[in-house]
Design a protein that fits this description.
The structure holds two protein chains of two kinds. Chain A has helices at 10-23, 38-41, 74-82, 123-138, 180-185, 202-210, 223-226; strands spanning 28-29, 35-36, 67-68, 87-96, 108-117, 144-149, 154-163, 169-178, 195-201. By secondary structure, chain A is α+β, with helices and mostly antiparallel strands. In chain A, strand 6 (144-149) and strand 7 form a beta hairpin. Chain A is globular. The model of chain A has no long low-confidence stretch (mean pLDDT 94). Helices cover 29% and strands 24% of the residues of chain B. Chain B is built from 18 helices and 28 strands. A five-stranded mixed beta sheet of chain B has the order 4-7-10-11-12. In chain B, strands 18-21-22-24-23 form a five-stranded mixed beta sheet, with helices on both faces. In chain B, a hairpin with a 5-residue loop joins strand 8 and strand 9. The mean pLDDT of chain B is 93. The chains are: A alpha+beta, B alpha+beta. The interface between A and B is large, with 95 and 106 residues.
């Protein structure tokens, strides 16, 4: 029987791939809201207003003082308000940065947040998990490297690079061990609990896996773009 | 931050790495770097590492990971003291001035440097002004301490460090005149503001080629105060970049010693004319090495802790003493990071999470719904949340489209307008809208179908997914406003209920996983779309035909868009309609050329497959 099929958006496809991989390890999927508060988007995640790290998050503000979330991390806090460890969580969603747009930057993009808080989980678990995820998404064993990096809500912080066919290392995502201040803000004793978190941009993944070189195409919906993905 | 091998070697004389290897080593210890050329690299210092915002700071970090000898800066206090200069620090800002020295340098017009600084100025992209100013710029980059030079004759009766009052004015050395808010940290002399602390000096007291005596400020200020200064005035500088991240309050002696080393010792007349006293506060952190290993998750043997000692962190059995230049270390997790980064993350061993089961009903329902819609020919689109159309929620800082969408319809129309070459489209979008409450909606668009067909499609959606939608035709005027070329456009939109359908579809999806395909660039030149209908025997596979057409030159996409059988065409037959999209990335295709390509293709196909063209 012949079927005339339409196409899922590549964002939905890669999200489904990440989720189905992670479900083997028991990850729950929760969505947060696109509108957030300063408190949950920044303050409780240890991104202080008077620290230069705030400069990486150019923000869209609403008339009533709320903002459009600049990352999916606020949901980490909100989820832990209603759930206790052990926790394995994925938060997919749209995020917004008040940046000028070009082929590699858009004011709107998709992130998937991962969070694991449980006894005995470590930085080594994080790197192992992310390496396996990359191998899965690319469909082959990838040359992956981790570098130390800085995000206010994790300590230690890392970035993951993959090696491209030209030999250059390309940045994929940021991750790290949940910062003790953030654990405290979740109501958890940092001396008893530890966890890891990561955040990956889906447009970035699509760029690296498929070669889509202009992030703005994801929202233009040219049929010649959409129909290449099944 | 630009770093040259030559400059770095002044502090790491045994450095043998080339630019490529240096960039890699720095990247692997937390300072992402790229090669500029064989002699220089560009380092991206993270916002928490004020201590690494200098050649010396990076050299120090490298000595930690590589073991290379660091040429340390001299801490000797060998400068003559004559505490005759008046500085008054307002009580209110006392805590913002961490450490403050002023040095008087006489006869600056006859100063001569004992080495060439042209290369270093070139690295900074600066023109030479005079030895004093040149050196303050160079040392900011070299040591991470921004110094400021005053013309002594312009601040004769001393300095007052205080907060500004609203509407005070200052003209800075970049010629910009700023109207100040309250609370900005400034220096005043002779009833006018002479310095925007930590950011930029004022024109009225700047050093020029006519200056005879300089008052050199070697001082460290609070990061948050300098950041406030910079944010309030909108002025950024290499100085504010460093102060905001945290400058070593104990670097002053080292800094002035380095400064004087650029001159012949006999040729420089310099005196310390003002100083604040500083309490050396020791910050100790309890470090439980077992906890560090649990956090890292891999075995680290005893030798590796030595690396953090090389960068100034004193480690006893269970306590770490933090050096004055590290503003970013305050807990044992920070120490854990120092240990693992200097030893490199490649040391981490494999540790797997346990396998567990979970049900994500809400996500699975939504994904199932999307799959069901694609199985009846709908393609998923994603459109932007910002809109020009007035709605309850307004964004204050996005004038281009200042409202958050309260419906998916505008985005739908814009997406249709993006595809003028498609005479038929079936789109859907799942996205959040703001009414003003944030809710999830699902929107549909069908283009190029008659009302009768649209009704059928509406029924199909209901029977396949349970969603009850009502398509409404979009009027000509609205289509024109949205720049939509097609004429038969129907839209529908409903709030998406939380499903609890079975997720059968999803489980099969997991079995047939394939990585995302390699993408072919969409041409900026318009495509040509041809629909070809073929009467075929039911035995002929669709894939075979599609593969065949895909081989045609300039053919980007081939899709089956319709298929039907009926008694009138014979029971063993069917009519397939294939849509072919042709494009050229370099130019607009000629319609006749495409017709020729299609005809040639059909001629070839007829040699292998029996068909009738409809």
């Amino acid at each position: 029987m012949v079927e005339i099929k339409g196409h899922l958006h590549p964002i939905s496809i890669v999200l489904e791939q990440i989720i189905s991989f992670s479900e083997k390890y028991g990850f729950t999927v929760e969505e947060g809201t696109e509108i957030e508060t300063e408190e949950y988007n920044f303050d409780k995640l240890n991104v202080a207003a008077d620290h230069p790290a705030r400069d990486d998050h150019d923000t869209f503000y609403l008339q009533d003082g709320r903002l459009l979330r600049t990352h999916t991390s606020p949901m980490q806090l909100r989820y832990l308000e209603k759930n206790s460890p052990p926790v394995r969580l994925l938060v997919p969603g749209r995020v917004f940065r008040n940046e000028s747009t070009d082929s590699t930057h858009n004011h709107t993009f998709y992130q998937v947040e991962g969070l694991v808080i449980e006894e005995g989980v470590s930085l080594s678990h994080l790197t192992t998990y992310l390496t396996e995820l990359m191998n899965y998404l690319f469909g082959r064993k990838m040359d992956v490297r981790f570098r130390p990096s800085y995000f206010p809500f994790v300590e230690p912080g890392v970035e993951l690079d993959i090696r491209s066919k030209t030999g250059k290392y390309l940045e994929v995502l940021g991750a790290g061990m949940v910062h003790p201040k953030v654990l405290k803000n979740m109501g958890l004793d940092p001396d008893k609990y530890q966890g890891f978190a990561f955040g990956v941009g889906l447009e970035r993944l699509i760029n690296l896996i498929s070669g889509v070189d202009d992030v703005r195409q994801q929202y233009q919906n040219d049929y010649r773009f959409l129909s290449q993905f099944k | 931050m630009i770093v040259t091998l030559k400059w770095l070697k002044e502090f790491l004389p045994e450095l043998k790495l080339d630019a490529e290897a240096l960039a890699t080593e720095l990247s692997l210890i937390g300072h992402e770097s790229v090669v500029i050329d064989h002699s220089s690299i560009d380092v991206d210092v993270t916002a928490n590492r004020g201590d690494a915002c200098s050649i010396y700071g990076l050299a120090r970090d490298l000595s930690g990971s590589t073991g290379l000898k660091l040429s340390k800066l001299s801490t000797d206090e060998k400068i003559e003291t004559d505490l005759s200069f008046k500085v008054s620090i307002d009580k209110k800002v006392h805590d913002s001035v961490y450490h403050y020295h002023l040095y008087k340098i006489e006869n600056v017009d006859s100063l001569k440097l004992n080495q060439s600084i042209t290369e270093k100025l070139k690295v900074l992209g600066l023109q030479t002004k005079n030895p004093i100013i040149d050196l303050t710029n160079i040392l900011s980059h070299e040591l991470g301490l921004p110094m400021h030079a005053f013309d002594a004759d312009k601040i004769k009766n001393g300095l007052v460090i205080r907060e500004s009052v609203k509407n005070e004015v200052v003209t800075l050395i970049n010629d910009r005149t700023i109207n100040l808010e309250t609370g900005i940290l400034v220096q005043e002399s002779e009833d006018r503001i002479v310095d925007l602390v930590g950011v930029m000096g004022a024109k009225n007291s700047a050093v020029s080629n006519r200056t005879k005596t300089v008052i050199l400020q070697v001082a460290v200020f609070s990061p948050t105060k300098v950041r406030f200064n910079s944010q309030s005035t909108g002025i950024k500088s290499p100085a504010s970049w460093r102060f905001e991240r945290g400058v070593d309050p104990l670097i002053l002696n080292r800094a002035i010693n380095r400064f004087t080393s650029y001159f012949d010792p006999n040729a420089l007349e310099v005196k310390l004319v003002f100083k604040t006293l500083i309490e050396k506060k020791e910050i100790n952190i309890k470090v439980d090495r077992k906890k560090v290993e649990l956090l890292i998750g891999s075995k680290i043997d005893k030798l590796d802790y030595e690396k953090i000692e090389r960068i100034g962190i004193e480690l006893s059995k269970d306590t770490a003493t933090i050096p004055s230049w590290r503003y970013d270390i305050s807990n044992w997790q920070d120490i854990a990071e120092e240990v693992i980064r200097l030893n490199k993350l490649e040391l981490l061993t494999e540790k797997k999470l346990t396998k567990q089961t979970v049900s994500n009903n809400e996500y699975e329902s939504l994904f199932s719904l999307k799959k069901q819609l694609t199985s009846i020919g709908f393609s998923e689109i994603l459109t932007l949340s910002f809109s020009k159309v007035n709605s309850p929620i307004e964004v204050t800082n996005f004038p281009v489209a200042p409202f958050l969408r309260s419906s998916l319809s505008q985005g739908m129309l814009q997406s249709i307008a993006k595809n003028p070459f498609m005479n038929r489209l079936k789109f859907f979008e799942v996205g959040n809208v703001f009414k003003p409450a944030e809710v999830k909606n699902i929107g549909f668009a069908v283009v190029g179908f008659k009302q009768k067909d649209v009704n059928e499609i509406q029924e199909k959606i209901l029977s396949e997914t349970g969603l009850r939608v009502a398509f409404v035709s979009v009027d000509e005027k609205e289509l024109k406003t949205a720049d939509v070329k097609q004429t038969k456009v129907f839209l529908a939109e409903v709030n998406l209920p939380k499903h609890s359908t079975m997720a059968n579809d999803r489980k099969t999806k997991i079995a047939d996983f394939k990585p995302l395909p390699a993408y072919s660039q969409v041409s900026k030149y318009p495509p040509i779309v041809r629909d070809i209908s073929l009467l075929l025997s039911k035995e002929v596979g669709t894939d075979e035909i599609i593969n065949y057409f895909t081989e045609l030159p300039n053919c980007l996409i081939v899709e089956l868009v319709d298929t039907f059988g009926s008694e009138s065409i014979g029971i063993g037959n069917r009519v397939d309609t294939y849509r072919l999209i042709f494009q050229d990335v370099k130019t607009t295709l000629n319609s006749d050329e495409v017709t020729e390509i299609v005809n040639q293709g059909l001629r070839k196909l007829s040699k292998n497959v029996q068909f009738q063209l409809r």
